[in-house]
Design brief:
88 residues, rod-shaped, transmembrane helix, membrane, transmembrane
Length: 88
């Protein structure tokens, strides 16, 4: 009878010890994982910020236009020329 009770208690104790060891291992790795997660978030937000600034700059440049090129002049169409009548 003692053998059955001892086996049950012993296996429960071994399971509890393994669980406690696993808990301690994970508890020690959480700060490192937290630092890694924040680092990845910083990298992603930095990339998104740079891309957003480049897009805003491109839109602003396109809205203002460049100063080096003259504005195009409209070409007269043939129907827009005034016609003269002889005799008047």
């Amino acid at each position: 009878m003692g053998l059955f009770i001892g086996t049950g208690v012993g296996s429960a104790y071994a399971r509890a010890r393994r669980g406690w060891a696993d808990y301690q291992t994970v508890k020690k790795t959480v700060p490192g994982a937290r630092r890694t997660a924040w680092l990845l978030i910083k990298v992603a937000t930095t990339k998104i910020g740079v891309i957003a600034l480049l897009l805003v700059g491109a839109v602003a440049y396109a809205a203002v236009g460049s100063d080096g090129e003259p504005a195009p002049t409209p070409t007269p169409s043939p129907s827009a020329t005034p016609s003269t009548r002889a005799g008047r």
